[in-house]
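ESCALATION

Customer reports they have been waiting on this structure for their group meeting. Please prioritize. Original submission:
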Amino acid sequence: MSESKLAGQFFDAAIGLLHRVRDEEAGNIAAAGAAVADTVAAGGRLFAFGAGHSSLAAQDVVYRAGGLALMNLLAVPGTVGVDVMPATLGSALERVDGLAAAVLDSSPAKPGDVLVIISLSGRNALPVEMAMNARALGLKVIGVTSVAYTRATKSRHVSGTYLKDHCDIVLDSKIAVGDAELTAEGIEAPFAPASTVVTSALMQAVMACAAGDLAERGIEPPLLRSGNVDGGHEWNGRVMTEYRDRIFYRH
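Update from on-call: job pushed to the front of the queue and completed.
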């Protein structure tokens, strides 16, 4: 099998998943966008959390051109991608009980804020407890996960529940268990994961809905511009000054 054929098969698989989430999750995407817009309009703040590779989709909506300036990364040290050595430590930290509560208690999140929690499997203690504790604190929780994992895997949280069980709104990424879209003769393990592509698209779709919702209410969405276009730095400086009490990456 040629490399170009495999590349084409991956694109086909990713595009198929994007079509599915566009069509099957449209209502939930709109609801999540409205929740984000409600929070912005009410003076609240926005946070996104993800562990391991799920953190990539969270980082993708923080401090970026075309994105909402109020989206902040809720980071748990050691779990943001491969920022620790050995990298396997990050996976182990996702299973530690009590870590989520400590992170939330020391964060600037307040009742009425929105927290988006991204976890492909939704089965580990960290995202489950993050959702449970966030709701107990009065935050609105949006979960981005693959519901398929709840049918094919066992929860690693003592409650036996999954991320989806503790969210106000759930966005199902439709990713198959194992997160690998391709198999091929001569290659022993399945390969070519698409979760980052799909989850990032879901996040950007929610942000787009939120921006449109705010505009319909007559509220200018607090968007950032590219610093690589003329006037971008000045625009972003104005936005960050205006919303400085709701942005936590600007210090």
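Sent to customer with the following note: The chain has a mean pLDDT of 92.
Escalation resolved.
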